[in-house]
Every structure is written in structure tokens, then in C-alpha cells.
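Extended Data, panel c. Modelled sequence:
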Amino acid sequence: MRTFNAGVEGAKQFLHLQPQLSAIVAGDDEIALGVLSGLNQNGVRVPDDISLVGFDDIEGLKFVRPLLTTVRVDKEKIGEELAKLLFELLQNRDLPPVKRTVSTELLVRESSARPGRGLGSNGLSIEVVS
């Protein structure tokens, strides 16, 4: 619930500080849902006034309108990679920093629109909420 509330508050701050926004990209879907709520509370329509994108593709999104555009990530694959890394670290504590890459997929749904339809309509401006 903390991240949802952070999204609500973040939306209010963005509207106050950056009224020309055309899109908000949230650090995860729960924050994006909070942003959606905060925007709605302030009379801002998604995607008519501003586009909104989340990250995770959580299960409950199918019940939210507009359907949230989000980035799907394979959480099972992330868990596998973390488990492998933990095992490697247990075997060798002097292991140098490593980089693991997990593929993602952008799921374009109802909460995003073409740039220029946003609150400012003067070009694209993107803020990331995390």
C-alpha cells in the first residue's frame, strides 16, 4: 500500500511541478495505479490528458480501467537468476560484480496515447516514478 500511496502523492507533485507532462512511467504497476488514482482525483484523464506506463504486469491489472500499458518481465526467470547468483556467491565470496539480463515485453494497452495529446501538448516530456 505504501507504493500505491507514493504514486498518488507523486501524481499530485508532478501536476504541480510539471504541468506540461505528456507521460509518466512508474517504477512498478502498484505505483502506476496510485498515479492513476492521483490523476483521477485531480481531474486528469488517462490517456486523453496524459499517458501512463507501469512495470511488472501484475495480475490485478485486468480489473482496472483504462487498461494499464506496462512492461512485462519474467519474474520466474529473475528468481532463477538470483538463485544462481546466490549459489555462485556462496561458492566464491570473491566473485566480481556480475550483470544478468532478463528480457521484457512492452504491453501497449489503453493508458497510453501518441505524444502531443498530453496536458502540455508541446512535445514529449517523461518523468519516471520509482
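The radius of gyration is 17 Å. This feature is highlighted in the accompanying rendering.
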